[in-house]
Amino acid sequence: MSTEIMMALVMNLLPLLLTAVLVRSDQNMVPLKSFKIYENVTYVCIDIYKQPGLDHPLLQNHTIQMKSSVSKPELNNQFGKNKTYKNKMECPDGTVPILRSSKEYISNAQLFAKKYFHPLSGDSPGTHIAGVRSSNGPYRGVGAWFDGFPLNIERDQASYTQVYIGSGLNNQVNFIQTGYMTNPGVFGDGRLWTYGFWKGKDGKGCYNTACPGFVQVSRDVPIGKPADPEVPDWTRCSIHQDKGTGNWWLTQRISNEAYIDIGYWPKELFDLIGNGANMVGVGGAVQAARSGPSPPMGNGKFPNGDHKGSSLISNIEVLDSNYVQRKMNSFPIEQLLDSPKCYGLKMGKIPPLHVSKLGFFFNYGGPGGNSCGI
Ligand SMILES: *[C@@H]1O[C@H](CO)[C@@H](O)[C@H](O)[C@H]1NC(C)=O
Ligand SMILES: *[C@@H]1O[C@H](CO)[C@@H](O)[C@H](O)[C@H]1NC(C)=O
Ligand SMILES: *[C@@H]1O[C@H](CO)[C@@H](O)[C@H](O)[C@H]1NC(C)=O
Does the keyword Signal apply (predicted)? Predict the structure, then answer.
């Protein structure tokens, strides 16, 4: 081969060689894929085995459960809306979306978790509830359909719609809850967010991924995400214990979309709910500063007897001790309403024709105000 030909070859190959080098160095530091869905709301796709949730000391030897084993009942979509997830994310295979959280968010969330009331404690100042619960466990799960409404919530206030499970023994509690929350003090905005919250063995726990514990498994739907602002989302939220592993799964379904197993809280985190939870409940809750007014709950309107007039929670179902799905009111239930001046609760009564559609349901909510009591 002549020198000229050699040179020509090298010159021709040069761009290729350079490209190869670039690609290699690129692979060494592949930027993590991320989704910015609003200002200050970015999800980063993190290797499922390196997610921060697994940093909990009790999860040192934890094996990730990739799929929930409980079969999911197909409920009719009685609300007729064809809604799809907006801002749909899809992390690459082997990665999961984790909210990029600021130091401020982490410390706010942890502070809030400390003063957070829970459904098993007595009263805490500024907290009001409207809902139902049943304490005839062990239960293996609870789920319900509900909607979320954008509300005006001040920085020192919070408003929730939630389903929860829990057990208490002496001064100790284990519990898990999920639903919608507006909580500017934690999220730094007045948006409606889906969320999960837990408290485990040592009395510790937190929201979403603000501390280790929750194991994210879905590649598309993270625990904790702002709802679409335009349309209230009809969402089914449920928590259930996996029969095989004892882990507590968080499942969500928005309107006609498929059920999504978002992830789970591993059984290692808990010491009182290994064989089910004593108590399950569903309802609205608000929190206010000790001296300030109480925020609105639900859609801000009192139930007026028409199931469309105020916020509705429907198809409330539990998994009994044998993992059989039953209407919650096939067990004894308590109605909870501690501030009837500001909020209301109306158990569902509609013509028999519609009974099968809404299942066991109730309306709840109200405007809040200055004289709700403490
Ligand atoms: C984003 O975060 C910064 C810093 O906390 C804040 O000043 C800003 O108002 C936030 N933006 C939105 C839209 O919430
Ligand atoms: C994990 O396994 C090691 C080795 O068997 C053991 O020493 C350690 O206590 C385990 N950690 C937990 C949190 O179970
Ligand atoms: C929802 O979408 C399905 C499939 O695209 C369609 O058959 C159905 O008519 C739609 N329902 C409504 C209420 O728009």
Answer: yes
pLDDT digits (tens, 9 = 90+) for 227-245: 876 665 688 999 999 999 9
- Strand ranges across the sheet with 334-337: 225-226, 192-199, 172-182, 158-169, 279-287, 127-134, 334-337
Question: What are the tens digits of pLDDT across the range 61-120?
Answer: 999 999 888 655 444 444 444 455 555 789 999 999 999 987 777 777 777 666 665 555
Ligand 1 center to residue 336 CA distance, Å?
37
Where do we find the tokens 């968080």?
250
**Quick one: tokens of 228?**
């679409």
For residue 331, which amino acid is it?
F
Domain ranges in the chain are: 3-60+85-365
> Is 82 close to ligand 3, i.e. is its CB under 6 Å away?
yes
The reply to whether ligand 3 has any atom less than 6 angstroms from the CB of 332 is: no
Where would I find the H helices in the chain? Answer: 3-28, 103-115, 184-187, 352-358
Q: Which residue in this structure is represented by tokens 């040592």? A: 202
Specify the DSSP class assigned to residue 203.
S
Write down the pTM of the prediction: 0.85
CA distance 129 to 34: 37
